[in-house]
Amino acid sequence: MFGLGSNAVDGNNINDDNETLTDLIYEAAVLPELWPSVLDHLAEIAGAQGSVLIAADLMAYRWINSASLDQVMADFASGGWGSQGQRTAKLLGARHAGFITEQDVYTPDELARDALIQNFLRPRGLGWGTATAFPLSTGDTLIFSIERRFADGPVPREASRALDALRPHLGRAALLSARLKLERAHASVQALEMLGLPAAILSGAGRLQYRNAGFAGLVPRVVRDQRERIILSHPGADALLADAIAGRAGRAARSIPVPADAENPALVVHLLPMRGAAQDVFGGGTMLMVATPVMPRPVPGTALLSGLFDLTAAEARIARGIADGATIAILAAQQNVSLATIRSQVKAIFAKTGVTRQVDLARLISGFSLIQ
Fold first, then answer.
1. How far apart are CA 148 and CA 169, in angstroms?
2. Tens of pLDDT along 313-357?
3. Do residues 178 and 32 lie in contact, with contact meaning Cβ atoms separated by under 8 Å?
4. How confident is the model at residue 14 (pLDDT cuts 50, 70, 90)?
5. In the prediction, which pLDDT does 7 show?
């Protein structure tokens, strides 16, 4: 968490296993599950409690960490500490091609006033550390932050020098991990192209990173590639997309209906997180977006409607009835419930489908045809 300590290993022993550790670093480049072991070794060099590998962008942090810091990082996430203190800003502002410590970037007064250090790290027995940063092609900054116990004092200079010797290997391995992750994502998108499915890779912030030819054909009629994030042309569908992107911390797969219009058929846009702790760090929190065109058909069944829009069984019956032309009064009589109950269900259906009128709901539903 510099982007967010035991005593340091004896200086005579720091370099003993450097060759083995370098091999492990490059193994982790192609086997991301090995990065926690690399982090443990870095912590050992600094005589620290553990290490964290953080990917930071303008919106959020993602990380993997030594098991010894599991509770610390859980508290960091749940308490919203990412916006506290100046540690990350000072690390990046230093633009130093090596590991730096608090003494390198803080005055004593600044150190005493830093909220993250004083209110989060020191109450947990931490408060000294060393860190280094690398920019990634995904637009993220990758930070290796080594956290040392406060009682053990600052990270010794000889430990920082030993870590500096490893830094070029860490940087090359991190960049290779990011490139391999992106290449695997590209391969997934191209495989979907062979199946006739438009697909794209989005960053964690929703920016378009890569698209296949089928997805390019949807621009700008159905989707628009904006600087901030990708935009769906239909306002209701785009509101659902914005909500899905904003919910990145606990993101699950989402299916977003895009109604048909005079020029374009109806689509379902599937947003799929590309999961895996280390993979997510190096992949920039990437998401796979797949557009499924559908053929028109009068009214789909309730099972299909439930699956497409996450409707309850009762909501699916109401939605199908509206598509069939039934009024609120007719639906209330058919379901033997009050008008208020039907209106409440219709409101829930609107929220899940991104439309605001019954006529738009009927048009949306009648535009879908899938094998049931």
1. 22
2. 899 999 988 887 788 888 888 888 999 999 999 999 999 888 888
3. no
4. very low
5. 42
Query: Which residues share a beta bridge with 62?
Result: 55
Residue identified by tokens 């089928």 is 214
Confidence class of residue 178 from pLDDT cuts 50, 70 and 90? confident
Using a 10 angstrom Cβ sphere, with 0-12 exposed, 13-18 middle and 19 or more buried, the burial of residue 174 is buried
Apex 102 CA angle, 173 and 175, nearest 5: 10
Burial 24-34 (b: 16+ CB within 10 A, else e): bbeebbeebeb
At 333, list the tokens. Answer: 């009589």
Three-state SS for the chain is: CCCCCCCCCCCCCCCCCHHHHHHHHHHHHHCHHHHHHHHHHHHHHCCCCEEEEEEECCCCEEEEECHHHHHHHHHHHHCCHHHCCCHHHHHHHHCCCCCEEHHHHCCHHHHHHCHHHHHHHHHHCEEEEEEEEEECCCCCEEEEEEEEEHHHCCCCHHHHHHHHHHHHHHHHHHHHHHHHHHHHHHHHHHHHHHCCCCEEEECCCCCEEEECHHHHCCCCCCEEECCCCEEECCHHHHHHHHHHHHCHHHCCCEEEEECCCCCCCCEEEEEEECCCHHHHHHCCCCEEEEEEECCCCCCCCHHHHHHHHCCCHHHHHHHHHHHCCCCHHHHHHHHCCCHHHHHHHHHHHHHHHCCCCHHHHHHHHHCCCCCC
Tell me the sheet residues that pair with 131: 100, 145
pLDDT given at position 262: 72
The burial of 236, by beta-carbon neighbours within 10 Å (0-12 exposed, 13-18 middle, 19 or more buried), is given as buried
Query: CA 14, CA 30: separation in Å to the nearest integer?
Result: 25
Contact present, 284 and 360 (Cβ < 8 Å): no
